[in-house]
Design goal:
- The chain is elongated.
- Helix 4 crosses helix 6, helix 10 packs parallel to helix 13 and helix 13 crosses helix 14.
- The longest helix has 18 residues.
- The protein folds into three domains: about 100 residues, Conserved hypothetical protein from pyrococcus furiosus pfu- 392566-001, ParB domain (Alpha-Beta Complex); about 80 residues, no CATH class; about 70 residues, no CATH class.
- The chain is of the alpha+beta class.
- The protein contains 16 helices and six strands.
Length: about 325
């Protein structure tokens, strides 16, 4: 894409600062831009489009233009586009400039899709997907637009990098009540992106299995107790909530793991002796790891193994035949 532009002086009083058509960025700290301009001046000229003979529109460089106005600057050298340049071309130029600095977040991608064309024809489909950096599928475009439908709390988390982009489509399809419950959970616990995905997946599975709303699942007594405990840090709350959600999602597996862990504790083995089960108990075989550096340690470990073999109750609870 090649767009004709000229480089010339633009007076700020001719720029329509209220026109935010192309103000699609989620990340802007004007104070930082002001400090940079004071120290170094304008390193990257903004892009402006003529609207008519007297008014001009910002295409790229909103932060710089706003900062310049705060500094009392009267004019700036900028790239100027003709009024004949379409909104689509301006949006693609804006996006191309952004991607030279960083990848757009999910919210910015959605804004670009809506501005450029939310339902592109076949000829424009691949160009639009390539422009926002997603795979050329309808699902990818719908996912980009879905970010715009999220409640404000999630939008803030998304722009701060505290919400997984994978969660966007899931959250956008939830009821308002379920969204509010998830927002409260994430706001209190501040789970990492991988844990967010895990929790959302498990909560959806539980709700579907038990024919419940997600908000009803999260009203579980153990989960509420963890969220409301003021003595716990967010990481501790997250661990307790994960444990509770896992119990709700995999009750039998969690019961087996608890029973196994209790039996292992009763063995009173030292750290050099470790007994473990196959992941998810998919096999009845157990594994023992021994660490020793002398015959005496080996003899002691052997005695502990013999003691286990003689304890029918523990063998039964460990599912040893």
């Amino acid at each position: 894409m090649s767009i004709q532009r000229t480089f010339r002086t633009v007076f700020l009083n001719a720029v329509d600062f209220d026109d935010r058509t192309f103000d699609l960025s989620s990340h802007r700290r004007t104070s930082d831009v002001v400090d940079s301009l004071r120290k170094y001046g304008v390193l990257h000229p903004p892009v402006i489009r003529e609207q008519n003979s007297t008014r001009m529109q910002i295409v790229s460089g909103f932060g710089r233009m706003i900062a310049l106005r705060e500094l009392g600057v009267d004019y700036i050298d900028a790239y100027v586009l003709s009024a004949k340049i379409s909104d689509r071309e301006c949006a693609l130029l804006k996006l191309a400039e952004l991607r030279t600095e960083r990848e757009p977040d999910a919210l910015e991608k959605g804004r670009f899709v809506v501005l450029i064309d939310p339902q592109p024809g076949e000829a424009d489909f691949h160009e639009l997907c390539a422009a926002i950096g997603v795979h050329p599928t309808e699902k990818a475009l719908k996912r980009a637009i879905a970010a715009l439908q999220l409640p404000d709390k999630f939008l803030k988390m998304l722009t701060e990098g505290r919400l997984s982009e994978d969660a966007v489509e899931t959250l956008s399809s939830m009821t308002e009540q379920d969204c509010a419950s998830i927002a409260r959970l994430f706001d209190i616990c501040r789970p990492g992106l991988n844990v967010q995905r895990e929790l959302l997946e498990h909560l959806q599975d539980i709700a579907a299995r038990d024919n419940l709303d997600i908000s009803a699942v999260l009203a579980n007594e153990a989960i509420e107790r963890a969220l409301n405990d003021a003595s716990l840090k967010p990481a501790q709350k997250t661990q307790l909530v994960r444990s509770s959600v896992n119990y709700l999602r995999f009750p039998h597996l969690c019961e087996w793991e608890d029973c196994f862990a209790q039996a292992v504790d009763e063995l009173l083995w030292p750290p050099e002796c470790k007994l473990s089960h196959h992941p998810f108990f998919e096999s009845s075989r157990l594994k023992i790891e021994l660490s020793f550096e002398s015959k005496e340690e080996l003899r002691s470990h052997t005695e502990k193994l013999q003691s286990l073999c003689a304890n029918d109750d523990l063998c039964k609870r460990l599912r040893l035949k």
